[in-house]
Amino acid sequence: MSKVWFVTGSSRGLGRHFVEAALSRGDQVAATARDTASLDDLVATHGEAVLPLALDVTDRAAVFASVRRAAEHFGRLDVIVNNAGYAQVGAIEELTEQQLRDQVETNLFGAVWVVQAALPLRDQGAGHIIQLSSVAGLLAMPLGGAYHASKWALEGLNESLAEEVADFGIRVTVVEPGGFATRNGKNPDPLANGHVAGPDPAYDGLRQRLAGLVGRQPAGDPAAAAQALLTIVDSDAPPLRVLFGQGFYPMLQQTYADRLKTWADWQDLSAAAHGRLDRDDR
Asked: Is 151 a catalytic residue?
């Protein structure tokens, strides 16, 4: 049975590949982008199977209107893909208040508005919400504090959401991609994405060291990622979390092993911090 999708951030990158994969197998897609001209070729190829919608996910009213229009146009929505987002780069000290607010408004609040608008899916008794997170939602690196904060927040938000909507037949999957060749066959360069805080010379040495690491992780094939997403939405038991790509897996294994070891090493202090209350003091 064909599915109806609602995908944010459809103009390029993984979002674009998700839309193309869904349409290529006969599904229908409400594809949103800030500029729908980027979707004209999809309309020319797939006709009424694709509904282009202009959308800035930070506009809550516009999000609700777009989801409502898509549901009315196609008669239902089966798969919601929260993909829109970007990475703000900069040391914590370098970030302006507006840069941090804009990062959270797009990556976190924008996703929340889409979920809230789509939750009438419960009346269907079925549906699947896909949240694009990142390996940046599982570990942290210098100069990515704003981006990490938004993605870590999404991880917790969607874990709560999964338990809240399970009884309605709605599934939730958090997709955590590593690097994918979405810009001219290469990994996007986070230092060249237009969202970089004004540099403080105190961090120049750190920037130089990190610049040498950019792009070293193997770039995944976004078309393969799109096919993997189709497998997930067709699964009878989709995962709550899933990594896309293999480059960061060893690093994540070490990160979690280090966390467990630290908690274990400091368990005596943890117990001491708990303290002990006599019954008369409770």
From this structure: yes
CB 53 within 8 A of CB 28: no
Q: Is 134 a catalytic residue?
A: no
Q: Which residues contact 142 (CB under 8 A, 6 or more apart)?
A: 91, 206, 210
List of residues 6+ apart from 266 with CB closer than 8 A: none
The C-alpha atoms of residue 156 and residue 134 are separated, in whole angstroms, by 13
The pTM of this model reads 0.92
Within 8 A by CB and 6+ apart from 251, the residues are 135, 139
CA distances for 179 relative to 111, 117, 184, 191, 235, angstroms: 21, 30, 13, 14, 24
* CA atoms in the 13 A half-sphere facing the CB of 95: 21
Structural domains for the chain: 4-250 (3.40.50.720)
Residue 2 bears catalytic tag: no
**Selected catalytic residue, list 133, 134, 150, 203:** 133
DSSP-assigned letter for residue 110: H
Residues 233-274 have pLDDT tens digits of 999 999 999 999 887 889 999 999 999 999 999 999 999 999
